[in-house]
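[audit] Reproducing an earlier prediction to check determinism. Same input, same settings, fresh worker. If the tokens differ from the archived copy the diff job will pick it up downstream; this log only records the rerun itself.
[audit] input (103 residues):
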Amino acid sequence: MKIMVAIKRVVDYAVKIRIKSDKTGVETANVKMSMNPFCEIALEEALRMKESGVASEVIAVSMGPSQCVDTLRTGLAMGVDRAIHVDAPSTLYPLTVAEETLN
């Protein structure tokens, strides 16, 4: 069995979030980004399953701009076998991604 884990690049949990001055979103310029902690937990569990022999391969997938590659490299350093980056230069919203996945 192969396990695919979707991982997301988010603002680091230790960084204090700031709202943009025009109130259109969160300030992400010059802010440390990291893997979503919940995605990291899922990735660790998938790697445990591989170590126990339940799975043969763990694949990490991330959608977003080219900076997502850094998050995928973190997954590779954790022990992931392969990483796939789906390039999406525009802003992705969870609902949009879910709707496109279902279609």
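[audit] rerun output stored. Observation attached for the diff report: Residues 37-51 form the longest helix (15 residues).
[audit] end
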